[in-house]
Amino acid sequence: xxxxxxxxxxxxxxxxxxxxxxxxxxxxxxxxxxxxxxxxxxxxxxxxxxxxxxxxxxxxxxxxxxxx
Length: 68
Fold this sequence. Notes:
Elements: E1 2-4, E2 11-12, H1 13-20, H2 26-34, E3 38-40, E4 43-44, E5 51-52, E6 57-60, E7 63-67
Helix pairs in contact: 1-2
């Protein structure tokens, strides 16, 4: 499981995907999210602006990342 640490109250899902290395660019993250390939806390998420806070996790293509 990957982990990313944020210094703010939240991070948007597409930004978290880029920071974690799940997506190389925002466009790639956008397509993965819109295609239903990303889950947040176990539920499919189709909003790229979804706010993630410490304790949330997201999964894309079988890889999981925890926000701290």
